[in-house]
């Protein structure tokens, strides 16, 4: 039938244009290439951390010493991962962590994160790597001449041997796990740097209700001072994440959170080390502030479309009756 | 002196007819507004466009209740107030965003239908010209609307497009500042584009739509074969009940019944996009707030402007601007550049048929290249070749149609 043939042609050219300006153009725009012009594929590794992307980066930078040191570092991490950790032995080590992580004051640039759910939202291998050397684990060692200058650099002297690392990680996995809400996951993993103004959540956490404007302004100044410290440490104030979930693709978000260097080479943002479950929680929080209509959309959509299907059927019957003795 | 029946029921048919000529209006605009029978669904695109414009107006009114034209408030009024706080705000915003994008797809289909069937010739020149006026008005409406969320792409697209008015080597920065009301896009810029978007341009569009419909009434719409129909004869046949013999149908209800069916199909697709596939019409970059100190890695217009953007891009500054200027007005001259005496579908017009498909494909290639990074030498070369080809299409059309043989009636 002629009408269907015409429709097929119109649909073909429309879809071709769509393919070229959307999936294809976006792929070409965000393509990353190495110095030889070969495409670098940044894939999600399922939020598992074994250092392979970091070693590959060192290879691409043609830095032999770095390749060797990173390979050795992640091999050590794997070795510690094999050790059987003793949670009760880890408890006493963890007490020394709390000195900073429960203090809720800025230390060396950021407020050390609360670790209440560290065992639930972070990957085990990553926790081991982070305690061993925070700068290398989070893949921002390029920022430091000596990775001991990292704000958490002192950890090297607090966890002198591999067994104590295994123990403290075992402790966190056992006792600092528990049920965690999306908002808690976000607060523990991201909030020290990234505010969410649509969630009324600046770097200092939920804004209390003040009776007097003077107190509210005083709190605002505290927030600004904290942001200034973060800014001084990171080089710029990390962006507000209110609707980041819509500003970046799902693929970008996942690969970026796994390894910020893969999408933004040279960035001062550290790898966070979220596990797949941890990321799911953080993502859920970001959807709740950035794309809150998602669930409603999915609920209303079928009804609106059903309405127009019925409309179309009725219109077709009317058309048939009007055109029946025209030919 | 007109006669008024004192006994006529107020607002009844007779009463209204005596006062505003209701029956004449009905006859002229509906029951005896003759449309050729030999048409396909592409003839419904006009009404589909009118319906989409209606949807844009309605959704726009809802958005207007909460939108705040202020550089400090605009972004959050759209992305927070409308998307999170207002009941179904997201629904109207997504309709408005998808509608603004899809309306251009339908405009292009409508335009290419006109070109394919030669519907801009022999008495129908003004239909084409008023249609081009609508295209310009819709483009301005789309651009001004794109400024309003005050995201990164709003800001930088505004920067790039207003910069075009500096005229390359003319360096008319005074004009650019006059348009912006500032050295860079700022509050004065946002409020004036807000006014244009919600008042002046929609008024112009409504006026142009009336004109577009008006230019259509006397020459009638074209038909699939470009046949020169004797409307008087066919109308008499229809009125005598000889529907099979008549070549025409009345606008209402016969033509409208088909329009409504096509609209139904269109709205199923439209709302599928609104609910499940709206990203294409809402660029992710525009979900980052405007930042004059941070240029995005890639600045590109929405898809419907890409072809003309690509005619600007591959050339040096001044030549690019001139080429861009030509591309903007090229289609206006179509009724006069086509020298052929034939009003017929392209597949009956020999070389013109090839010209048509080359034009369509060239514009799709330009559209794709307009978004792809020009730093890639292959894309840059394809872009340059297709831009030059587009510019050559005008003179080629004159040449091809000058020698086109007249198609004999009944052949």
Overall geometric form of chain B: globular
Strand content of chain A: under 5%
- The beta-strand count of chain A equals 2
What is the total domain count of chain B? Answer: 2
Order of helices and strands of chain A: HEEHHHHHHHHHHHHHHH
| Assembly category | heterodimer
**Residue ranges of chain A: pLDDT <50 for 5 or more in a row?**
none
- CATH fourth-tier homologous superfamily of the largest domain in chain B: Cytochrome Bc1 Complex, Chain C
Low-confidence stretches of chain B: none
The gyration radius over C-alpha positions of chain B equals 24 Å
- What is the general shape of chain A? globular
Number of helical stretches of at least 4 residues of chain B: 16
From the coordinates shown, what is the CATH architecture of the largest domain in chain B?
Up-down Bundle
| Overall pLDDT level of chain A | 93
Q: Which structural class do you get from the secondary structure elements of chain A?
A: mainly alpha
Order of helices and strands of chain B: HHEHHHHHHHHEHHHHHH
Fill in the CATH topology of the largest domain in chain B. Cytochrome Bc1 Complex, Chain C
Name its key features.
heterodimer, A: 327 residues, mainly alpha, 2 domains, two-stranded antiparallel ribbon, 16 helices, 1% strand, globular, B: 411 residues, Cytochrome Bc1 Complex, Chain C, Helix Hairpins, two-stranded antiparallel sheet
């Amino acid at each position: 039938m002629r009408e269907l043939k015409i429709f097929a042609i119109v649909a073909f050219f429309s879809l071709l244009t769509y393919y070229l300006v959307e999936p294809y153009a976006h792929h070409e725009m965000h393509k990353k290439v190495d110095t030889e012009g070969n495409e670098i594929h940044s894939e999600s590794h399922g939020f598992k951390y074994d250092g392979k992307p970091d070693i590959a980066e060192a290879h691409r930078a043609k830095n032999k010493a770095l390749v060797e040191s990173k390979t050795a570092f992640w091999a050590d991490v794997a070795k510690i991962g094999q050790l059987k950790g003793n949670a009760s032995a880890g408890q006493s080590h963890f007490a020394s962590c709390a000195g900073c992580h429960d203090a809720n004051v800025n230390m060396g640039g950021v407020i050390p994160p609360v670790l209440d759910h560290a065992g639930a939202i972070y990957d085990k291998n990553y926790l081991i790597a982070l305690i061993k050397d925070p700068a290398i684990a989070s893949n921002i060692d390029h920022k430091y001449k000596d990775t001991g200058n990292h704000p958490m650099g002192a950890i090297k002297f607090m966890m002198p041997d591999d067994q104590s690392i295994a123990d403290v990680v075992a402790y966190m996995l056992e006792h600092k796990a528990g049920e965690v809400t999306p908002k808690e996951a976000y607060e523990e993993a991201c909030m020290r740097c990234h505010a969410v103004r649509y969630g009324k959540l600046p770097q200092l956490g939920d804004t209390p209700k003040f009776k007097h404007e003077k107190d509210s302004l005083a709190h605002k100044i505290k927030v600004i001072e904290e942001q200034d410290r973060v800014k001084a440490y990171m080089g710029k104030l990390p962006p507000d994440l209110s609707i980041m979930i819509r500003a970046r693709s799902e693929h970008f978000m996942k690969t970026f959170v796994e390894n910020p260097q893969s999408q933004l080479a040279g960035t001062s943002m550290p790898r966070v080390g979220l596990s797949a479950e941890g990321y799911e929680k953080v993502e859920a929080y970001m959807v709740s502030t950035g794309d809150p209509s998602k669930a409603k959309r999915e609920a209303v959509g079928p009804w609106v479309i059903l309405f127009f299907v019925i409309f179309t059927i009725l219109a077709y019957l009317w058309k048939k009756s009007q055109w029946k003795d025209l030919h | 002196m007109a006669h008024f029946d004192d006994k006529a029921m107020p607002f009844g048919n007779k009463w209204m007819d005596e006062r505003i000529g209701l029956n004449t209006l009905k006859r002229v605009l509906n029951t005896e507004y003759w449309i050729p029978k030999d048409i396909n669904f592409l003839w419904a695109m006009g009404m589909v466009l009118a319906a989409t414009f209606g949807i844009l107006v309605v959704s726009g009114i809802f958005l207007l209740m909460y939108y705040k034209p202020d550089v400090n408030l605009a972004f959050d009024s759209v992305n927070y107030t409308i998307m999170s706080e207002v009941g179904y705000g997201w629904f109207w915003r997504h309709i408005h965003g998808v509608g603004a994008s899809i309306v251009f797809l339908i405009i292009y289909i409508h335009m290419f239908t006109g070109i394919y069937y030669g519907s801009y010739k022999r008495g129908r020149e003004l239909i084409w010209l008023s249609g081009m006026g609508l295209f310009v008005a819709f483009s301005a409406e789309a651009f001004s609307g794109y400024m309003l969320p005050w995201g990164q792409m709003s800001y930088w697209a505004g920067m790039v497009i207003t910069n075009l008015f500096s005229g390359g080597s003319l360096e008319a920065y005074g004009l650019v500042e006059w348009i912006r009301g500032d050295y860079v896009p700022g509050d004065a810029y946002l409020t004036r584009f807000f006014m244009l978007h919600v008042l002046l341009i929609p008024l112009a569009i409504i006026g142009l739509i009336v004109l577009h419909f008006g230019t259509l009434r006397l020459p009638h719409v074209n038909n699939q074969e470009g046949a020169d129909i004797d409307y008087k004869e066919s109308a008499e046949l229809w009125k005598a009940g000889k529907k099979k013999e008549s070549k025409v149908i009345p606008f209402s209800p016969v033509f409208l019944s088909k329009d409504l069916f096509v609209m139904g199909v269109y709205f199923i697709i439209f709302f599928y996009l609104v609910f499940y596939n709206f990203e294409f019409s809402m660029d992710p970059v525009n979900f980052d707030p405007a930042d004059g100190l941070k240029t995005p890695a890639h600045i590109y217009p929405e898809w419907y402007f890409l072809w003309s953007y690509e005619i600007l891009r591959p050339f040096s500054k001044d030549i690019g601007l001139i080429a861009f200027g030509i591309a903007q007005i090229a289609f206006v001259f179509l009724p006069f550049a086509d020298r052929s005496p034939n009003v017929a579908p392209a597949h009956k017009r020999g070389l013109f048929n090839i010209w048509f498909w080359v034009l369509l494909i060239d514009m799709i290639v330009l559209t794709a290249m307009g978004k792809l990074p020009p730093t890639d030498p292959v894309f840059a070369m394809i872009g340059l070749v297709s831009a030059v080809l587009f510019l050559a299409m005008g003179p080629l059309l004159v040449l091809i149609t000058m020698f086109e043989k007249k198609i004999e009636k009944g052949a």
